[in-house]
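Subgroup meeting minutes
Present: P.N., E.W., G.H.
Scribe: E.W.

1. P.N. recapped why we're keeping a running log of single-chain structure predictions: easier to compare across weeks, and new members can see raw inputs and outputs side by side.
2. G.H. added today's entry (463 aa).
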Amino acid sequence: MRLSFLNVLSICSTTVLAAPSTSSSGAAVSPSSAPINSSSTSKIPASGHQSGGPEYVVLFNNSHPQPPQVEEVLTRLSLSSNHSDVRYTFNNSAFRGFAASMNSHCITALQNMSDVSIVEEAVHIASRGVNFRANSPWGLQRISSRSAVGGNAGTMSFTYTYEDQKLGSGVDIYVVDTGINTDHAAFGGRARMGFSFNRTDATDGDGHGTHVSGTAGGAVFGVASDANLVGVKVLGNDGTGLSSDTIAGMDWVIQNHQSRQNEQGFVGSIMSMSWGLSAVTPSVDQAISAAVQAGIHVSVAAGNDGKDACNFSPASTGGSGPAISVGSIGMSDQVSSFSNTGSCVDIYAPGEDVLSSWIGGNNVVNLLSGTSMATPHVTGVMAYLMASNSTFASSPSALKQYLTTPHLGGFTKGNSASGGKVILSNHITGAGLSGGLRKRSIPYHASVHIKKARSVRFHAKMA
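Output recorded in log:
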């Protein structure tokens, strides 16, 4: 029920109104049932307004038969345009209203005025400027562009574009791989080792895990350059290992994720898995599904066999499964000849000639190819989106749906089997534009040996 003008005054003002009059029948007549002239000039002393409170924006109802003047509504609240609580008055030809600091008694009054359409607490607005990082690998430009990029893939001559400067801050990326060269300059102290199947060796003697980590979260090479990187060493220095070691690593990740839940600044967890088995292994797939049910996001490599990814773990947990399975593309957006494909592949990302961190020093880099290299691009975008959106951070299924829905990244090129698939995008497309540049540079040596990444296989564990 809408209150009359007199009721509004009685709610918002501390002034005592006249006692109810008596009808000819002797019954008391309340102010709300008495006829009120909307053009009443009754004034409430300024001392009746209770100063302070949050700032609210008030807009009037233009469709009302008699839209009020600003001063008229302010007077109802024992205010005026000159009052210190009134910050703005809006008196243009399109809309009228005001912004003022008010307490709940005035808000209730305004919400019951039929000639007021909006009473809304002022909200904080932040600029959504786009940031550019020059001297980046080609993969970072591709995930922040609408179309394929050109140039020399082996150089740092590309531009990474992003919006949220948190860049994955608060997200734990568990790199389930060969370990991490935590001293590498690309990590800036954000990388640490958390688990190793080899209790006497937690170092990365192979380089694969360090390369993956650099793409996911390195300061120069990485998508989520402020994320936490945690090495989970389940593969040896020859790049192979046992399925039991991998499950033990996932067990440690789940426990560590759960222990982090109430820690200040914690956003969420991702397991990044750039390896594959020679067949579907139910124990590995079940462990991955359980990790996702525990709230951990999982990205897995589709595999480098040029076959159906559904025939190999952990890629088999993609598609209708809970993980995000990643195939590889080159600079032309063609699906890589080595990449597995099929319904279990959810998304494609840059995986050819990817430059990233390496072992053998704190500024050594290497150029590798494989779905192993495509996967951390997705891992990094996952961390980036989780840090900027709490729904994505808490819901692996929501984030998977968002990432795999066609957006700005475009589609793969090729025949019906490999073309028309979703390409990874961070949903910002500003490469090549000018603007504020946020640069992070570290020294690195480009004159290191180049080799192609291989598909990692597990040895079967015999009884």
